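Handout, section B. The chain below has 243 residues.
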Amino acid sequence: MPTIVISGAGSGIGHTFLKTLSSDPSNTIYALDITFSEEVRGDNITRHTVDTSSPESVADFSSALGSQPIDMFIHSAAVRGLVPSVTEKEDDPGAAETMDVMDVPTFTKTLQINTLGSFLLIRALIPNLKAAASSSTRTIPKVVIMGSRMGSVGANNTGSAYAYRASKAGLNAIAKSFSVDVPEVCFTVLHPGRVESRMVPNVREEGAVDAEDAVEEMMPIIKGLEKKDTGKFYFRDGGVIEW
C-alpha cells in the first residue's frame, strides 16, 4: 500500500494529482496546503494545513507524520512571484515581474516559499523516505518536484521573471544536492509546462493547458522513475531540460 504526500493539494495541479492518485484505494495520501476546498476529502486522504514558508508549520507536520514510511512526495506548492500592486492593474502577468517593477517584498516572499520552504519540507521528509527505502518490498522512494523551465539558466533567452526564475533555479540546485546527499531516494524535477492554476489569478496565460491534461501526460513518467533518473530535470513529455 503506497503512502504518498502531495503539497499544494488544495488547488491547481497539486489538487489534480490528489484526485488522480486517491482514485486508487490502495494509496494512502497525505494532502498538504494552506487552505483546502471541500473537494479535498476521501477515505484514503488525510489533510494537513502546512505553510511551507514556516519552519514551525513544517515541524508540526513532521511530528504528526512520525516514522511513517513515505513512498513518494509530489511537491507542487509554489507562488509565481508577481508584484501585487501591478497585478491589480494589469491582466498581463508578465508586466508584474519585470526588472523595473520587481520589489523586495515580492522577491523575498517568492524565495521564502519556492526555495527555502521547499528545502525545509523535503528535508523534513528525508527520514520517512529513507524508511521506505529500507524495505526490500518497496521500489525506490521518489521526490517529484514540479519545477519550471524558467528555472533553467541555460534556457533563459527571454529575461524578466526575476523572482520566479531565481526561486526555481535555486530549487533546481537544492534538488540536485539532495540527489547526491540522499542516494537512497530518487529526486527528479519535472516541468509540467504552463498550466492553468491559481498561481496567476483570474488570468489564463497564453499556451496554458488544463491541469488534468498535464497530470495525465506526467503520470507515466512519474510511475517509471528509477534510480538512474535521480538528479535529472524533465519536461512533462519526458524530454530532458538543461539546468
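Note. The first helix runs from residue 12 to 22. Compare this with the example in section A.
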